[in-house]
Structure formats: structure tokens, C-alpha cells
């Protein structure tokens, strides 16, 4: 790539070489570059970089980290720059750094030049220069990099923007050309909603552009925000802007009749606009993100006609809609309409669009005799009236698009806020309906809701509050019912309430008198289901986990996957959440409701059959998933399902590993509990199928626990016990419990000899050789590995024989016989490559590199280590990747390069992704002692 360098900091930090964008690396590197750019070519000290990256309590190595990040940035700007070279773009001057940039290469410097030219001009040329300068901004300075607070340098640059916006507004108002800079004024006012000088200019600009009604609504919004967030009234400048709006003559309300309606048809006695909003919830809390999104949408140029809030039953849709309507009401001075459409009540009580329109038209002053009989005529009259007004319409409990589409305004400045348990699909985008999904409260929001409702009682017992929040599953309806119950019974303490919920063990009966309320709310959605979807809903609690895949639900319901997908989509419209990747989740309280329904409506035999089907599905899927992981001893094929259930198929290793990761909790739960249902074979089959997954993800304790549970379920099955003992030995080996591992291997060897299974005996002999290698008993290791190789050759098992050769080569290398070891490693690698065994190839490469390092052939050692890292990453084997990286780090440390050593160890720790394995602890120790 060639061409000049250019940079941007007026928004996200970016850099280009010619037309090609440069990858700027980590967040820390982008922060360093952002501060350099915000200085506009000025110097930045290392101490400032340390404060920027850590704010407080920097590590002892902070200065070295800064230098390393700077070095990496240099090489991104100058790719051919040698390590530790000074460079010509990002230069160092003592304890400071600076960027060599000019006006043409940095947007901030171009912005400053244009603003200076605008300040020295007048009239429309000045406005044009301001417009060009403000067009350079794409977001806040260095957006996307701020943590808890923005750095003062970035705030100062943002301040230059807002000063330019104020100057641009003044120049535009003087020349009568506000439309040129109105979008920039709007955007800046959204960023700084409490900047009264900026907001005053927005009001004046809107009025000058002929948008006086919008300006008045904006003032009401600003006034409310100042009172709500700062507890103050608008200042003199903002009030003066408001007064200037009121100085103009305004047309009288209702001066023009809607098209097609004579004045005689209007009830002019209704002088006051309708104000039908239900009262706001005094204890409303949380939902800041959704409220902010709604404010942004209605303040934008492409305002939607409707905001449709969807979510599961009891999640607080109506409460939020009412609260949001009160927050926005000042923007709509012509009044508010409200209707509960009862979309999920029984069929006859659902409000029709015609019924809702008649009520709205009457509220808008249309005489009953003048209301048309036809729905389309009613909707036309309704839209004609709204076209002349700015009104807020609240529609609660909408069933679907057909129920609300006639109730939406056509043109004009009115807004609908609607709620539904389903995602309403209809016209979206500018001028259409915009969905706002409502999820559960966060833990903090749920605690705040209880604390605000219960006061001192909640503040005095936070542990009970946490327990109640957990038992209510952060569902606002459940929390509100518990709070109401607690307030209504003064003698009932919070710990007692928490205890009752815990004793109910996830059943709705724990809510006492509130049970009926929860059941009623949930039943509205349940009654709307088709019989097939209702049956599946009742069976879903029989799945071992709250989250499940489509295929598992199909097995549970005894239906094809395609049919299950359709039923789950129906449930997801009201009663399920879809986290993604074809998976589904049921809220705890809906789970409890479904349990009650299932026990009431479904026969025990039908429920038992559903559990058997889901166990069949997981046993067969686990078997299919373990095969792409190339197990040394593939498991026997499960017997055909008596219920006709088949497992899912896997296209390769990556898909199988992803499935094991997604289903790990379910599979381990089945292993632990299958014996209770007399499915011992299912338990040990799944346990063994997960062995390679546990090994490759370094979950050695989980491996030991799961296979141990499988061993407990195996009973007197000799084959199963032999396989499980050998698997447990592998877990013990990786947990560094070699003696226990050797004991399991000896038990496995005795059982395999009894069964006459020579291939499995070979694997055990090879595993014993591995332990002897770790114990540095190299001659014994060779003896066991040669015994294994002979057994494998007799059985024609090439992979097993190659693994044994690998163990012999390692022992030879440790004994100093390097030439012999190298020859064996090369032969083993060739065999593994022909077998397509990535694990075998990577392991051989790692030992080959180690042997090269032992004979000081450093180029071959480093190159082969890198090959091993790439191979293990392709194999999705992070534990083995980390092992190789540790070897690389140890090599650099021994050769006096601590920087490269720490880099390799840190990369190894990242591969383990927070696990607490012995290897992870050893790596942390290395990093601690080599700071």
C-alpha cells in the first residue's frame, strides 16, 4: 500500500494510507493515537499516556507498556520499520511523543482552519464555511473509546465544535439562511441537552425555518429536562428565545376544519384538548436505554409514526409506555388519546379498530352522528383531523399490525406509542412503526424498584432483596406484586417473603395471593396459542435447561424439526426469548407457569415419553459430535431409539465443538441424572463423548467430574468401566495428579486384558508411557511405548502406532539422542498428516521445535513452533496452543528477551480465556515474577 497518511479524530479514531484504511490495533493503541491527534501535532508526555490508559493505580510496567504500544503504532504507519527504530511519523523527544501531521492530513486541523476563516468572514460566505467545518464531525471526539468519563483533551475538542455551532447559528440567523446549518444545530443540541445557549439557538433556528410549533415543543422538553435532571428553571437566554416565539401571532386552535368534515360535524364545545393518559407510575425506575432511544427517534428528522414496545408478559411494557408518554407529552400540545385494545383477551372482548376509532373521533370533537359507518372512512376522518395537530396516541395491548394500522396518523406531527407482547411487523422505517424491544430489568434496576417501593425495609435487608430479585427473575410484574404484598402485610418481613418464594422451588404458588394475578397475565398469552404450540409450551419445562435448541424442542414434542421451528416462532411472539443461533430461552416464572399447566393437562405417560425422547436426542447427538474430534477409541453406535428419535448431524470439527460448548450444561446434567431414570448407558456414553471437548478446552476438573459421574452410573458394565477409567486417567494427567492417573490406567488395563481388546490395551500402555515421561523415567517410557506400538501394529491401527512412535521420540530426545529423535518426529508428522490428524501434527511440530532448540538450531525451532501454533488454532485446541506459546515464552526468557517472553506468555493466557487450570496458574506465576 502506498500514498500519504491521513487521520480522523472528529468521531471514531481512524487512519488511512492513501485510500486504504489502517488497522489501528487494540483499544489502548487507539487511545494513544487519539490523544496525539487531539493535540494536533503537539507533544504528549509518557506520564499523560499512563494517566489516559489507567486513570488510577497503573501497574509497575505502565511506562514499558506505553513504549510498546507506541512501537506497534509506528510499525502500523511505517510497515517496513525495523524493531525499535525511531520512525518518521510518530517521533519521540525525550519523555514525549508527537505526530508529524499538517492541515491536510488531520480533520481537526482542517476544522480549525475553516472556523477561523468563517470567523473572519460575514454573511452567507461565513455560513458556508461554518457548514463545511461542521460537516467534518461524525460523532464526539474519539467516540467509542471513552470509558467512565471522557478525557479532558477530548472534551475540549468537543467544546470547539459547540462553540462553532453557536457561532454558525448566530451567523445564519443574521443572514436568514438557518436551513444550511439547522442539521448541525440539531445534532449538537442532542449531544448537549443541558447547554442552554445551544438550546436557545435551536429554538430560534427552528422558528426562523417556519417550525414554531416544533420549537415550542422543544422548549417544553428542555424545561422538563432541566427540572428533572438539575432541579432548575430555564435561564434568561433560553426564556428570551421562548418569548420571541410567543411574540408572533398564532392561528387559533381549530381554525381550519379537517378535509371532508363540515364545522357543524365538530363539537366545538370541547375547547380543551383531550388529556387521556393514565397516571404515571410514581416508582418507575430503569429503562434509561430504551427511553433515550425513543427520545432520539422522535427528535430526529426521520421521525417514525409509531413506537411499538414489545416484550414478554409482565416485563413492564405498559408502565414504560405510560411513563414515556408523560415524558414526551410536552412535545404534543394538542393533547393525548389512550385506548386499551385488549389484544390478548378472549375473542369477544378484543377491541376492534372501528371501536377504537369511534372513541378517538368523539374525543377529537366529532359529533356521534357525523362519525362514518365504514372503517376506512373513519380512519380517513381520523387522519385528516390529526394532520392539523400534534397529538400523542397511546395504544396498549395491541395484538397485531391489522389491529393498529388504521389507528396510525398519516401525515403531520403526531405520534403513536403502542405496546404488544408480539413483535409487530408492518411498515417500518421513517414515517412507519419503529420497534422497541423491552427485556428484563437488570439486577440493579430490579433492586432499585424494590427499594423505592419498600423504602427502609429493603435498605435494611439487602440479602433478602437479592433473593427476591432472583426468585422473581427480574420480571417487573412479579417484583411489583411482591412489593404490594409486603406493604399490605406489615408483619411480613422481607426474609419471610424470600423464604416463601424459596420454599415454592420455582412454582408460582410462592407468590401467595399474587399467584392469581401472575397466572391471569400469563394466561392471556397462553390462550392465544394454537393447540400444538400450547402442548409444546407445556412440555418445554421437561428439558434439562431453560435454554434449548430447536432440535431438542422437536425431540421433546415428538415433531419434525421444521414443525418445531414454526411452533417455537409462535411461542417466541409472546412466551419465549430467542438469544440467537437457533436457540430459545424461557423465563423462570413462565417456566413455572408451564409446569403447572403440564401437570394439570398432560398425562404422566406423555410427559415421561417426552423426557425419553429428549434423552435419546442428546445421546445420539453427542455420539455424532464426538466423531469429528477424532477420538482414539470411538464409542459404539447407540441402539435405535424406541421413539424414532435421531440425533443431529455435524459437518466437521468446528461445528461439533460449538455444539458441545452450547449444550455442555445440559449434557452434564443428563450424565448426573440419567441413572435416576434407569438410563445408565446414556450417562456413560455422553460422559465419554465429551472427553475430547473437555481436553481441547482445558476443562480438566469438569472432565473428571463428568466422567466420574459416568463411572458411577456404569455399574457392572466391564467395557464401560474400562473406557471410563482410562478417560479419568487423562483428566488426572492434565490435573498433574499422576499417581491417581496411573491407578486408573492400571484398572483399565486389567479390564481390557480381561475383554481381550488389544487396541485399547495399546492406548493404556501409551498413556502409561506419557506419565513415565513426565516422571522423567525415560527408559520405562520407551518400554511401555514400544509395547503399545507392537499392539497397535498387530491390530493395523496406524494412528495408535504413530502416537507410540511420538512418545518414543520424546524419550530419545530427553536422553540426548537428538538425531534419532528428529528422524522419528519427522516420520510421525508425515503419518499424522496422511491421517488428517491435526492434534497429532501439532503435537509433533511442537516437540520437533523443542528438539531443534535443544541443539541450538534456533531458526528451525522458531519456525516450527509457529507452525504448531497455527495447527492447534486450526484444530480449535486452545490448551495445546497455550502449551506451545508457553514453550516459546520460556525460550525467549532463557535467551534474555523478557519483552518477547511476556508477550508469548500473555498470548498463552489469553488462549485459556480465564480458566483456572494448573497451566493458567503457572503462566500467571511467570508473568508475576518477570514483570
Automatic annotation (TrEMBL):
Gene Ontology BP terms: phosphorelay signal transduction system; regulation of DNA-templated transcription
The question of whether DNA-binding is a record keyword is answered with: yes
Give the molecular function GO annotations.
ADP binding; DNA binding
Keywords (alphabetical) are: DNA-binding, Transcription, Transcription regulation
Q: Which domain of life is it from?
A: Bacteria
Gene3D superfamilies registered for this protein in UniProt: P-loop containing nucleotide triphosphate hydrolases, Tetratricopeptide repeat domain, Winged helix-like DNA-binding domain superfamily/Winged helix DNA-binding domain
DNA-binding region(s), residue ranges:
1-101
Q: Does the keyword Transcription apply?
A: yes
- List each copy of the OmpR/PhoB-type domain by range: 1-101
- Family membership, please give it: Belongs to the AfsR/DnrI/RedD regulatory family.
Tell me what this protein is called.
OmpR/PhoB-type domain-containing protein
Q: Which organism is it from?
A: Micromonospora costi
